[in-house]
Design a protein that fits this description.
The chain is mainly β and 120 residues long. The protein has no helices and eleven strands. It starts with a strand and ends with a strand.
Length: 120
C-alpha cells in the first residue's frame, strides 16, 4: 500500500520560507503526477502545484514565482519550496500522487496533510 509521508510544515513570519517534502513510501510505486494541494481556513481544497513524471509543471494562479515544485524521481519524493510567504498562505498542505494501476486506471493517493502557519 502506498503511503505519502509529508514533512516541513510549521510556523513562519510573513516573508519567510518553508520547504515541504513528501515521500511516496512504496518501493515499487512509480508516480505519474505528484503535487501539492492546500485547504485554507474556511475554503475548499485547491491545487497549489503539481509535476508530471515528464517534468511538466502546473501552478495555480498566483503561485508561480513564489512557490517552486520539484521532484526526485529516483527517491519518489516531491518538494514544494515556498518563498515570500503571506498570511493568506496559511493552510493545511496535502501531498498528492497518482499512478496507473495494472488495469490502466488512474489511482489517487493523498497524504494526511501538514499545517503551515504564516503570521503577519
Amino acid at each position: 500500500q502506498v503511503q505519502l509521508v509529508e514533512s516541513g510544515g510549521g510556523s513562519v513570519q510573513a516573508g519567510g520560507s518553508l520547504r515541504l517534502s513528501c515521500l511516496a513510501s512504496a518501493s515499487t510505486f512509480i508516480p505519474n503526477t505528484m503535487g501539492w494541494y492546500r485547504r485554507c481556513p474556511g475554503k475548499q481544497r485547491e491545487l497549489v502545484a503539481d509535476v508530471h513524471s515528464s517534468g511538466s509543471e502546473t501552478y495555480a494562479y498566483g503561485m508561480k514565482g513564489r512557490f517552486t515544485i520539484f521532484r526526485d524521481n529516483a527517491k519518489n519524493t516531491v518538494f514544494l519550496q515556498m518563498n515570500s510567504l503571506k498570511p493568506e498562505d496559511t493552510a493545511v498542505y496535502y501531498c498528492y500522487a497518482d499512478h496507473f494501476d495494472e488495469h490502466g486506471y488512474l489511482v489517487h493517493f493523498w497524504g494526511p496533510g501538514t499545517q503551515v502557519n504564516v503570521s503577519s
